[in-house]
Design goal:
By secondary structure, this protein is α+β, with helices and mostly antiparallel strands. The chain is built from 4 helices and 6 strands, in the order H-E-E-E-E-E-E-H-H-H.
Length: 135
C-alpha cells in the first residue's frame, strides 16, 4: 500500500524515477525455467519485467509455473522455431546423488538410479525407501 492512497501511473513513474528505480518489460518471452537441485519450475509465456534500483537488476516473473522433477524433459519449441532433438530416454539423476544413495543404502548403481527415479530425484527419500524395504 502506498502512503497517501492510490496514485496514477504518471505519479508512480515520477516517484520511482526520484528513488532511482526503473522498470523495463522484456518482450516476447517464451519460457522461463528456474532450476533447483531436484526440480524445475517452468513458466510458459510469462510476463517478465526488469526492475533496476541503484544499478542492481531484479527480474520479476509473473505466470503459472509447472513444477516437475529436474531433467524430466524440455518443453517443445514454439511452432516455427527449431525443434529440439528428441530425448534419448529419461535423464539420469546427478552422479553425486547416485553415489550418495549407493553409499548410504549399500546398493548397486542400478538400484540407486531406480530408487532416485521413484523418489523424483530426492536422494534422502530414495535412501529411506530402500532402507524401509530392508534392502
Amino acid at each position: 500500500m502506498i502512503p497517501g492512497g492510490p496514485r496514477n501511473q504518471r505519479q508512480m513513474e515520477l516517484m520511482m524515477r526520484r528513488l532511482g528505480m526503473k522498470t523495463e518489460p522484456v518482450p516476447d518471452v517464451e519460457e522461463v525455467i528456474v532450476r533447483t537441485r531436484t526440480k524445475e519450475h517452468v513458466f510458459r509465456a510469462p510476463e517478465v519485467t526488469i526492475l533496476t534500483v541503484q544499478g542492481v537488476q531484479t527480474y520479476q516473473v509473473v505466470g503459472e509455473a509447472e513444477v516437475r522433477p529436474r531433467g524430466a524433459g524440455a518443453a517443445p519449441a514454439p511452432s516455427g522455431g527449431p525443434q529440439p532433438a528428441p530425448p534419448a530416454g529419461p535423464a539420469s539423476p546427478p552422479d553425486e546423488d547416485v553415489r550418495l544413495v549407493m553409499e548410504q543404502a549399500n546398493v548397486s548403481r542400478e538400484e540407486a538410479i531406480e530408487a532416485l527415479f521413484q523418489a523424483n530425484g530426492a536422494p534422502a527419500e530414495a535412501i529411506l525407501k530402500i532402507l524401509s524395504r530392508g534392502g
